[in-house]
């Protein structure tokens, strides 16, 4: 919110006191500036919007690095985000069959699944596998 909005909330009796209003405006400006800074913090510490070194630092905070990916340290921010999304979904998986689609959706957006009825599932990635294939995903040719 703007400082001007808060100033309008003061009663008329104080508005004609210039020193009081100057002090109130100085305090309110600090508060509104702080609100803007605090509002920007979630975006700065989000895997979705972080870039470059900040993305690397966020990944390191959960024990991951670009070197863990199949593309190594040369993977782009977009590829690294896909890898992080897949790993975080895998870590959040409850181990049930019902939870598998959510994990696959994070690791392979646009994929299709086919239950083979024999305890296996065939997953077609749709648009191709992401460049850094998450660990634990095995390709079967044939």
Structure description:
It is a single chain. The chain is built from six helices and two strands. The protein has 142 residues and is mainly alpha-helical. It folds into two domains: 3-44, no CATH class; 52-124, no CATH class. Helix 5 (77-92) packs antiparallel against helix 6. The chain is elongated. The mean pLDDT is 80.
Key features of this structure:
2 domains; mainly alpha; two-stranded antiparallel ribbon; elongated
Output the structural class. Answer: mainly alpha
**DSSP strand content:** 5-15%
User: Which regions are unreliable across 5 or more consecutive residues at pLDDT < 50?
Assistant: none
Shape: elongated
Helix percent reads 40-55%
Let me know the largest β-sheet: 2 strands, antiparallel
Strand order of the largest sheet: 1-2
N- and C-termini, Cα separation:
61 Å
**β-strand number:** 2
Number of domains: 2
What is the radius of gyration computed over CA atoms, rounded to a whole number of angstroms? 25 Å
Average pLDDT score = 80
Topology pattern, helix = H, strand = E: HHHHHHEE
Please, how many helices?
6
List the helices and strands and how they pair.
Elements (H helix, E strand, L loop, with lengths): L2 H6 L3 H4 L2 H27 L7 H10 L15 H16 L7 H8 L4 E4 L5 E4 L18
Antiparallel strand pairs: 1-2
